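Researcher: Structure for this, please.
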Amino acid sequence: MTRQFLQPQPLPLPRSQPLAASRCLPLPRPLLTAALAGTTATLLLGLAAPYASADSGPSNASREAAHDAASAPGTLDTLSRFFAREGAVSKAAADPRVRGAAVPVRYLSPDFVAGEKGAPVGRVEFLASKAVSSDGQEASLWTVKQGGSWKVVNIATGDDETHYARVGADKLPGGTVFHEPQINAWYVQGRGRVLPLDADAVRAVGRGGVSVAAYQRRVHDAYADKLPGSAYAESGKAGGFARKERTRAAPAAASADGPVTVASSVAGAGALVALGLSGVAVLRRRARQRR
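Model: Predicted structure, token format:
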């Protein structure tokens, strides 16, 4: 089954403002290319914060604001078109609804990969909300903080983000769910362990999981040679970009909202397409395996 991503053109989107210099990790080819009129967008991971314990994440107020952005009339109108895109239901009959609270979505932290002391295994990259249509279709709305407010920057088919948040909470209450996008694997981390939540994660760490230290060694071996400063990153491959092209965005004001900002959280494929690109909405596909 494939997953589709939409750049919701009518919604407020990040433009071509400079991004903060950030560590970049390699991604599988289906996640690397987002094309619009022959343009390729690059998937970046943001800078990480404090180690094997998770960052505090967005505040309750931020989660509520992200939920409000996801359920705003303009977003629901875009959702109606998204659900109707293949003719399964008409736009008028789609009747989209946002269900449940927005959840923080963490991606594997580059600083954790590098072995920096105090770096958490995952960093919050965006918030996700689940939406459903009248005919049972599901979608995930990705929101980031931009210009002081929360904006929807991507819509993806399926509910991976909220689904694995629930699965992780059931498997390890109080644990931290995170995604290793390089292999499309989902995990929950806590009590000194990293446990798998899907088939890709089982292949990586086994059904019983591994210690946090063992997981760090595995991702270090897999990705450390592709972090900034490496020849891989300098060549501009897989999210890396030449040092001379890096510019630093103005630092975000410190707040209780957590680290999710446009400069630090352009994690989603659709969000990346939105950076500096304009025109018609873009649909992309990536392999999606939930077993």
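Researcher: Any notable elements?
Model: Residues 2-287 form one domain. The two ends are 11 Å apart (CA to CA).
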